[in-house]
């Protein structure tokens, strides 16, 4: 399995399966008018929204709209002010229908990296992002926004789907050491010259390419990656399994769409909800697939489904994840707390007169769904912009297909 298969898997609804409206297939979304052409109507909508939500702008709405119209007419594109960029990135988060953690959308830190062009410089900014987002464990939501696609100059790209992910190594017996979802990507970076340590939790190098440069490998320095060794509050043997996970989820393959412009490289991070690690990354059959091992160590009867050995192992694994992150001083939240926060977010947004688009199949946690309040209701579904999209190009990058140079 390769990372894009996993992305596809992540796109597949968890139960209950439902027909997907066409807008839900990110591949079906227009990238933009032509290559790098800004969409004037979308630009206008966005600028109006910005003025509506922030009436205190230095320039008049009318003047700004005219200026943008002229820029698009002359160059095919336009440049967002820093305030527009920050607002656009925050609203893109606010509109992300799959994210349960949107209560703090307005506190997203936006790092404006639009002027970075060389791969080395981009790499440095990405590492700064990791440090700033990690913040010694007191994780803060951060986004770094690099140059948008403009006519004649596609934006730089990072091929990794997250800034921090673990390698997966296919073994001769067909098993995988590490994260099977990254086996293809691992082979790709090995072909590019990565000297793989061969362990179960090796942080993959970054692949960065720009319009002018072929893909290049960059290491992620160990001191920029906070990792948490997993232990269990009641089972001392758990620590001997030598499991760990990284504290920062930093998605790097989603296109940020603001006001008719595409920012294909705009990595962002939040903090983890425990179930992402304890009920998916370490559990899915196409990932670390650890339930059988943990159930056996717990002494459960794995021959009978009715012993609920999977469920019992799953709960203990999630206890271990939350316990270990708390011990390590790495910010994490449990699914009950995060569900309540999401309902608070819905109320707040409703008071502000805004719709909160949400995808039930993604919002409901993969553990104990029915005992979280987010389960017992329906949500509005809408593709509101600004937003983040996962498009074909990102999928191709994950498969190692370079958008500029082929192969
Ligand atoms: N589920 C993904 C992972 O486990 C991360 C997605 C973003 N999650 C977040 N808490 N911001 O790596």
Can you put this structure into words, describing what you see?
It contains 13 helices and 16 strands. The chain has 407 residues and is an alpha+beta fold. The protein has a single domain, classed as Nitric Oxide Synthase, Chain A, domain 1. A hairpin with a 5-residue loop joins strand 4 (168-170) and strand 5 (176-178). The longest helix is centred in the last third of the chain and has 20 residues, at 309-328. Arginine (ARG) binds next to strand 14 and helix 8. Arginine binds at residues 101, 162, 249, 251, 270-273, 276, 281.
Short description:
This protein has helices at residues 3-11, 40-53, 61-75, 82-94, 119-134, 183-191, 237-240, 274-281, 291-297, 309-328, 335-351, 360-363, 392-398, and strands spanning 109-113, 142-146, 157-158, 168-170, 176-178, 206-209, 216-218, 227-229, 244-246, 250-251, 255-258, 261-263, 268-269, 272-273, 332-333, 387-389. By secondary structure, it is of the alpha+beta class. Bound molecules: arginine (ARG).
Name the descriptors.
407 residues, alpha+beta, Nitric Oxide Synthase, Chain A, domain 1, four-stranded mixed β-sheet, three-stranded antiparallel β-sheet, 16 strands
């Amino acid at each position: 399995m390769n990372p894009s298969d996993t992305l596809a898997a992540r796109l597949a609804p968890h139960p209950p399966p439902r027909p997907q409206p066409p807008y839900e297939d990110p591949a079906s979304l227009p990238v933009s008018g032509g290559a790098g052409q800004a969409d004037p109507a979308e630009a206008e909508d966005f600028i109006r929204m910005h003025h509506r939500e922030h009436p205190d702008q230095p320039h008049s709405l009318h003047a700004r709209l005219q200026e943008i119209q002229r820029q698009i007419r002359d160059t095919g594109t336009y440049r967002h002010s820093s305030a527009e960029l920050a607002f656009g990135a925050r609203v893109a988060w606010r509109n992300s229908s799959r994210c349960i953690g949107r209560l703090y959308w307005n506190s997203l830190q936006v790092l404006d990296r639009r002027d970075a062009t060389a791969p080395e410089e981009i790499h440095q900014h990405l590492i700064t992002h990791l440090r700033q987002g990690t913040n010694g464990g007191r994780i803060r939501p951060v986004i770094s926004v690099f140059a948008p696609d403009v006519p004649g100059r596609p934006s730089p790209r990072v091929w990794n789907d997250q800034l921090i992910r673990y390698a997966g190594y296919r073994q001769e017996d067909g098993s995988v050491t590490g994260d099977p979802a990254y086996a293809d990507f691992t082979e790709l970076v090995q072909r590019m010259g990565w000297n793989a340590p061969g362990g179960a939790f090796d942080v993959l190098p970054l692949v960065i390419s720009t319009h002018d440069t072929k893909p290049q490998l960059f290491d992620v320095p160990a001191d920029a990656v906070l990792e948490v060794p997993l232990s269990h509050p009641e089972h001392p043997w758990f620590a001997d399994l030598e499991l760990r996970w990284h504290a920062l989820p930093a998605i790097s393959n989603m296109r940020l769409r603001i006001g008719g412009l595409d920012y294909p490289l705009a990595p962002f991070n939040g903090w983890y909800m425990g179930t992402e690690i304890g009920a998916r990354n370490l559990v899915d059959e196409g990932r670390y697939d650890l339930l059988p091992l943990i159930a056996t160590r717990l002494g459960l009867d794995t021959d009978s489904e009715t012993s609920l050995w999977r469920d019992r192992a799953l709960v203990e694994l999630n206890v271990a994840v939350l316990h270990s992150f708390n011990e390590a001083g790495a910010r994490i939240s449990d699914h009950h707390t995060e569900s309540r926060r999401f309902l608070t977010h819905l109320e707040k947004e409703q008071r502000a007169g805004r719709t909160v688009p949400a995808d039930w199949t993604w919002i409901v946690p993969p553990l104990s769904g029915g005992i979280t309040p987010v389960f017992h209701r329906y949500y509005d579904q809408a593709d509101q912009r600004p937003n983040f999209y996962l498009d074909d190009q990102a999928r191709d990058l994950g498969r190692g297909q370079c958008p500029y140079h082929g192969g």
